[in-house]
């Protein structure tokens, strides 16, 4: 089957500059509604990847996201949200973007075309067989990502990919290929739109399900979140209050003493075994 770049096909809409603001917004929303359905079709592959990541992370493994442009930025974004949300160290989920941190705000010329750079960066992080490398590329053709996945696989490291084109080169380098086919973009080729939205959804699904499996959520609560601002301290206080049936001020003192909801609740039960 020939490789077709659906991400580069013409938009289903034309003469965009002649449309009203309302028409533009409605059309974009119509297209966005296709994204969740495309992600739904990919759930079997997402499950397959998560099921292989969890035992590796239980042995000390890490997740590395690799991407360029929007795809790279979304990987860095998801990785950066794991410590505050789940109280994990920032070394467990790592986002690498072609061109380095400069590329988060500014395009770095030709960075994504270097087939060897991705693997060199992974080696700088002492990558090993407990780790997982997930390549993100809407087109599925980014050399920086393809090269990293190819080398990782050669070294016996679990690889996954997220792309918006079927049977792309990136899929061929992945043990588990997640293909989310969202169709042509509203602005032709602008994969920051539907493809980017779908990538964000899938990254949320991967790390949230992994963290739940690793015991970082209790009931439906982020019991290990970092208490980095007043909103989160308030949220944590209410969790402790509800869990232990104590008043707000007492719960807040306990929370701040121990630093997380889980530690506060565990310490309370240890001191009050009959509670």
From TrEMBL:
Keywords: Carbohydrate metabolism, Lyase. Coiled coil: none annotated. CDD domains: SIS_Etherase. Pathway: Amino-sugar metabolism; N-acetylmuramate degradation. Transmembrane segments: none annotated. Pfam families: GKRP_SIS_N. The active site is at residues 81, 112. It is an enzyme of class 4 (lyase). One of its GO terms (molecular function) is carbohydrate derivative binding. Residues 53-216 form the SIS domain. Its EC number is 4.2.1.126. It catalyses: N-acetyl-D-muramate 6-phosphate + H2O = N-acetyl-D-glucosamine 6-phosphate + (R)-lactate. InterPro entries: Etherase_MurQ, Glucokinase_regulatory_CS, MURQ/GCKR, SIS_dom, SIS_dom_sf. One of its GO terms (biological process) is N-acetylmuramic acid catabolic process. NCBIfam families: N-acetylmuramic acid 6-phosphate etherase, PRK05441.1, PRK12570.1. Homodimer. Specifically catalyzes the cleavage of the D-lactyl ether substituent of MurNAc 6-phosphate, producing GlcNAc 6-phosphate and D-lactate. A lyase-type mechanism (elimination/hydration) is suggested for the cleavage of the lactyl ether bond of MurNAc 6-phosphate, with the formation of an alpha,beta-unsaturated aldehyde intermediate with (E)-stereochemistry, followed by the syn addition of water to give product. Belongs to the GCKR-like family. MurNAc-6-P etherase subfamily. This is N-acetylmuramic acid 6-phosphate etherase. It comes from Barnesiella intestinihominis YIT 11860. The gene is murQ.
């Amino acid at each position: 089957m020939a490789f077709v770049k659906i991400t580069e096909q013409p938009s289903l809409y034309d003469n965009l500059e002649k449309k009203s603001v309302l028409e533009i917004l409605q059309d974009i929303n119509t297209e966005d509604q296709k994204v969740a359905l495309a992600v739904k079709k990919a759930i079997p592959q997402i499950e397959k990847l998560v099921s292989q990541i969890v035992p590796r992370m239980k042995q000390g493994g890490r997740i590395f996201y690799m991407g360029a442009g929007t795809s790279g930025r979304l990987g860095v974004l998801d990785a950066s949200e794991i410590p505050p949300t789940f109280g994990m160290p920032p070394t467990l989920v790592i986002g690498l973007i072609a061109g380095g941190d400069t590329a988060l705000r500014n395009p770095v010329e030709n960075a994504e075309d270097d087939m060897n750079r991705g693997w060199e960066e992974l080696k700088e992080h002492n990558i090993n067989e407990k780790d997982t490398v997930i390549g993100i590329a809407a087109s599925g053709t980014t050399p920086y990502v393809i090269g990293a996945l190819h080398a990782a696989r050669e070294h016996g490291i679990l690889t996954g990919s997220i792309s918006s084109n079927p049977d792309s080169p990136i899929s061929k380098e992945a043990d588990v290929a997640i293909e989310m086919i969202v169709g042509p973009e509203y602005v032709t080729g602008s994969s920051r739109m539907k493809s980017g939205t779908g990538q964000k959804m899938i990254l949320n699904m991967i790390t949230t399900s992994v963290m739940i499996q690793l015991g970082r959520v209790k009931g439906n609560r982020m019991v290990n979140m970092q208490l980095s601002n007043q909103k989160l301290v308030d949220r944590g206080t209410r969790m402790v209050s509800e869990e232990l049936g104590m008043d707000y001020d007492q719960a807040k003192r306990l929370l701040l003493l121990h630093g997380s909801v889980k530690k506060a609740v565990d310490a309370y039960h240890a001191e009050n075994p009959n509670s």
